[in-house]
Amino acid sequence: MRIYNLFLALMYLGLANSPIKADPAATPAHQGFDKWIAHRDSGGKRVDHGYWRAFLAAYLDTTWADGIHRVRYGRVPKPNRAALENYVASLQSEAVSALNRREQLAYWINLYNAMTVAVVLKAYPVATILDIKYPDIPPGKGPWDARIMKVEGSELSLNDIEHRILRPLWKDNRIHFALNCASLGCPNLAPEPYSAHNAERLLEKGAETFVQSPSGSSLTGGTLFLSSIFDWYKEDFGGDRKGVLAFVSRRAEPKLRNKLRGFSGQIEYRYDWKLNDAAPGP
Description:
Elements: H1 2-16, H2 50-59, E1 60-61, E2 70-71, H3 78-92, H4 101-123, E3 149-151, E4 154-156, H5 158-170, H6 199-211, E5 217-220, E6 223-227, H7 229-232, H8 241-251, H9 254-259, E7 266-270
Parallel strand pairs: 6-7
Antiparallel strand pairs: 1-2, 3-4, 5-6
């Protein structure tokens, strides 16, 4: 606890001074880590995400006119970068199997997002997360398959958390809009940590906000432009065009929702892999 408080102190001292992803088809099969089926029915420990809350308050910029949340990577001083890495390390020391199911969901989402930011900070400045290199990972494939974490004795990658834990064990397609891949095309990084108490609200808000954003969906000249998320993970949205349209229509603005009734036009998928950096671009 004293060490954790030191990290928080460093954080607040710092505040005063203040396109293709690794082919989703090649990601780990949609099969779960059976060990994390285990959980408490209720109660149990609450994981402290206070540092992540403070980090987001300090360095996440939610004021851009396009609605995309950006991270002020260039403003994070070295002590706070180290403190973020220590927060991520503290999460890896948790006995996840002893947490209740809602606490586990928040834990995995926060670990994924905080680790992603830590990975970018270690490599910063970069134009895109795709340029971050790890040994044995092909150039241009990004960090998702690198085994950079260890939880309860298992070495994990970001892809493991997404495709072998969250997707198969929770089977909730809104999880795609809770995870942030440090790019302009991804769903927004939430301005607060996930918790057992706010997860349902944040999951639904994240899905709705993304669908209603230009990155998520837009209709132009009879063509429906959708995020590539709906193409890469179509199986999570009913497995076909009809399922994708149903998900989008339910959360779209009323004007678009009306136009999507009986929609039979063309659908095109797109994604912007530029870094979600708060620094103005060239």
